[in-house]
Amino acid sequence: MSPFDLSGRTALVTGANTGLGQAIAVGLAEAGADIVAVGRSAPTETATMVEAAGRKLHAISADLSSTAPIAGVVAQAVEAASAIDILVNNAGIIRRNDSLDFTEEDWDAVMDTNLKSAFFLSQAVARTWVGANRGGKIINICSMLSFQGGIRVPSYTASKSGLAGLTRLLACEWAAKGINVNGIAPGYFSTNNTEALRADESRNRDILARIPAGRWGDPSDLSGAAVFLASDAAAYVHGTVLAVDGGWLAR
Ligand code: NAP
């Protein structure tokens, strides 16, 4: 049996209808996991891909810009799948503006979705594990801006730096309970989130020139890291944020 095998496990992935969340869901399904996809938009395409991998996808509609749906989401997920084994906090947004002009609305929207909901969803799922005297895996999707400053994205940098800190804190509190909390820090990947950067010719050129691998990441480049952190192979990995960045941070 491969230590990376996820057969019989269920992964709850937020924002799995597109981009990195979709690639993570499909990667986990290809490793054997069923998927509970939680988000605003119907994960129709992802469901087709998960089913093509021979696994099931259960969709739960929820807007994670507030914590209001979280208790209901976890109850529905547990009812549909009998248990959640893996939680991937992937749903996230970005707002761009000069810090001198940045609004409170853009601050709150990003912090609420990227950080507050990730914490309270982790708490709600971890309570089901602790209540059942069992462990589980949490993977937080961080960013290069968990390590670096960036420009014109103050709430995004604050949220992703906060998420990396939270990953370490939760690992410290929950490792002894059999819960592995880790993060993945994607570099620059081609998704909706980075469309504005790729559309800006000079930013696109500067970014590409700095990536040692010489190309933008394809969402499928993240699957291996997600499968690893979700699997028994990572049983003793706690509180790490694994960069999958084509070498960006090594530069
Ligand atoms: P994306 O294509 O814009 O996807 C974002 C996902 O989050 C979508 O499924 C979106 O759902 C969901 N989402 C946003 N707000 C939500 C809300 N209020 N409630 C529920 N779901 C919500 O972006 P992506 O690039 O795949 O980003 C995925 C994660 O990776 C984000 O946390 C992002 O910060 C992070 N990340 C991305 C990159 C990159 O280069 N692309 C790099 C580092 C980190 P809808 O489709 O319904 O809006």
UniProtKB/TrEMBL annotation:
<dbReference type="Pfam" id="PF00106">
    <property type="entry name" value="adh_short"/>
</dbReference>
<dbReference type="GO" id="GO:0051287">
    <property type="term" value="F:NAD binding"/>
</dbReference>
<dbReference type="InterPro" id="IPR036291">
    <property type="entry name" value="NAD(P)-bd_dom_sf"/>
</dbReference>
<dbReference type="GO" id="GO:0047838">
    <property type="term" value="F:D-xylose 1-dehydrogenase (NAD+) activity"/>
</dbReference>
<dbReference type="GO" id="GO:0008678">
    <property type="term" value="F:2-deoxy-D-gluconate 3-dehydrogenase activity"/>
</dbReference>
<comment type="similarity">
    <text>Belongs to the short-chain dehydrogenases/reductases (SDR) family.</text>
</comment>
<keyword id="KW-0560">Oxidoreductase</keyword>
<protein>
    <recommendedName>
        <fullName>D-xylose 1-dehydrogenase</fullName>
        <ecNumber>1.1.1.175</ecNumber>
    </recommendedName>
</protein>
<dbReference type="InterPro" id="IPR011286">
    <property type="entry name" value="2-deoxy-D-gluc_3_DH"/>
</dbReference>
<dbReference type="InterPro" id="IPR020904">
    <property type="entry name" value="Sc_DH/Rdtase_CS"/>
</dbReference>
<dbReference type="InterPro" id="IPR002347">
    <property type="entry name" value="SDR_fam"/>
</dbReference>
